[in-house]
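Final paragraph of the annual report: two paired records, presented back to back.
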Amino acid sequence: MSRHVFLTGPPGIGKTTLIQKVTQALKSSDVPVDGFYTEEVKEGGRRRGFDVVTLSGKRGPLSRVSSDSSTSRRECRVGQYVVDVASFEQLVLPVLRNVNQGSDAEKKICVIDEIGKMELFSQAFIQAVRQMLAGSGTVVLGTIPIPKGKPLDLVEEIRSRRDVEVFTVSKENRNNILQDILAAVESCRQ
């Protein structure tokens, strides 16, 4: 039996867009849903980094393009981006801990977009996600990257869990996969 639903696929394929559509559909059926998604920050047409946006409307930086090449040891970097772990945790951890108060009778949906390299710099985030996947009061609707390079422990753990249904989003299916994802989330809530 699936208890959680994850989307995977290459960057820019439309995972976040699908997550937002599913979230809107759930909200309009009065399903309790919370969580966060990641949004590109563009400036003059160039990508400057990513923001975390919670479903309650709070926003803060996740990462920014590093302006200088000298990096301090403490910096968490993914390619050209420096990850602001403190900002990420400040926004996301209260949301995840709050959602955990769901019950079996009224399962909450928690959107986690995404569980990727940048987010995994936060040990507290990893712990919170593991707790949520193990608990029974919350259905996680999340996104994970497709395997590339060195495997990410938590991502592989999720991919291989028996209680997780994974949808692979592609150009071919992204416009007609919405109902399937919604149906999967609904069956996880039963």
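The closing record of the year follows.
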Amino acid sequence: MARGKIQIKRIENQTNRQVTYSKRRNGLFKKAHELTVLCDARVSIIMFSSSNKLHEFISPNTTTKEIIDLYQTVSDVDVWSAHYERMQETKRKLLETNRKLRTQIKQRLGECLDELDIQELRSLEEEMENTFKLVRERKFKSLGNQIETTKKKNKSQQDIQKNLIHELELRAEDPHYGLVDNGGDYDSVLGYQIEGSRAYALRYHQNQHHHYPNHALHAPSASDIITFHLLE
């Protein structure tokens, strides 16, 4: 049975269009391979689908660049010249931008000022003054933050000191305040929380009243307090 003639026009259905593209692409590459084997030809095919996906066939023992170079030699057409010129232009612009930036940096360091006229010098001066103003404001803000942090730390230390003094005053009024009978030479313990560590104030007592019953207990003083910091 003879095959019906297919009308050559764009396939509207996207799925059918993709299937047809894949089948005919494979058929084309097969024919290119046959030409390479049967006729010792060098064949290069570059294809892009409707989704810009690249498909390429190149004869064995050659490369796409070699095919293009051979094409330029035979046809006397420079394929790379336009691209090379664009690259050179891009390079020139980048070098010019780099030169200007280096000059601006030097001018802000007080160099290369002879190239500037009076108006450019005024503009540079104004720009430097604005920059100096921003830096100074940032410096004052940073100093202000440091001062506030230091004040908070000092306030915390003052509160701790007041609490310690208050505890000592209470112990002076009542000798048995906070007494811990642990049978050792340290007969009292006071605990305080200090900036992530715990401070213990221990009063050393010589236990003289154990040997001398008639010896009166003396009121504790600041000299009787030994403070230890224990890290947690």
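Residues 184-232 have pLDDT under 50 and may be disordered. This concludes the annual technical report; the extension proposal builds directly on these records.
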